[in-house]
Design brief:
26% strand, 7 strands, Peptide Deformylase, 186 residues
Length: 186
């Protein structure tokens, strides 16, 4: 299955809530496969369908050498919080300490339409929260304290990729960034 171009911050699809998956068909299985291949190529630890321009509630992850995917997720978050560095494949080279719940229970479906529950903590919990946010049109910079968000926006505006045609998803490129993501981008 083909690797897809990853949409960058500035592309409207990243700010748009995605629709629930209603049909668990071959097209959905192809989407999960495309997401997985694109994530591994980046390389990244997670990728949500809107990041490749598909406005559906689907994401994949690759955390601690375990691949996973989830469709139509509903999250229950712990009160306990974690802080740690977070990045996003839609924001090349941008990383900030981002507060998240320490653990998460994610209920949803696999690509065959069977109900599944994922229990995650630490980085897996972070990735699942980050990807579910993508499905709601929420980006990790939206989770930063005001001061840090301002600093992030300044860094983004100064980045070489921001405002380019690529950032608006109009150029069909395979790899949008030559920079290493250190596998942390989600
Ligand atoms: Zn992301």
């Amino acid at each position: 299955m083909p690797i897809q171009p990853i949409r960058l911050f500035g592309d409207p699809v990243l700010a748009t809530p995605a629709a629930r998956v209603e049909t668990f068909d071959k097209e959905l299985r192809t989407l999960v496969s495309d997401l997985t291949e694109t994530m591994r190529d980046a390389p990244g630890a997670g990728l949500a369908a809107p990041q490749i321009g598909v406005p559906l509630r689907v994401f994949v992850w690759d955390v601690d050498d375990e691949l996973g995917h989830l469709v139509n997720p509903v999250l229950t978050l712990s009160e306990e919080l974690q802080d740690g560095e977070e990045g996003c494949l839609s924001f090349p080279d941008i990383r900030y300490d981002t507060p998240r719940a320490m653990t998460v229970i994610a209920n949803g479906f696999n690509m065959h339409g069977e109900p599944v529950q994922i229990n995650g903590s630490e980085f897996l919990a972070r990735a699942i929260q980050h990807e579910t946010d993508h499905l709601d049109g929420i980006l990790f910079i939206d989770r930063l304290p005001t001061d840090l968000r301002k600093e992030a926006m300044r860094e983004i505006r100064e980045s070489e990729w921001f405002g380019s045609e690529i950032a608006h998803g109009t150029t069909p490129v395979i790899k949008v960034s030559p920079h290493s993501t250190r596998g942390l981008g989600i």
